[in-house]
Please model this.
Amino acid sequence: MGKCIKRTIHKKHNSYHMTREEAVSSIFKIFNTKNSPNYNNALDLISLFGISAEELSEAGLSYENLKALGSNIN
Model:
């Protein structure tokens, strides 16, 4: 077995995979920490997974944070 195939098999287990639920929970954590510098990361996750305002409100995000997102969510 070549080196490339071995690396590919070993990469399969780790951090390259994120589920939709993990994305919603990380967005929730970003917005609930004070002075969060990761606001752009949250917007990137929202656009990448196509997360709606309804999903974020069900996760427990406050109305004020949802209004702050404005047109960034559908």
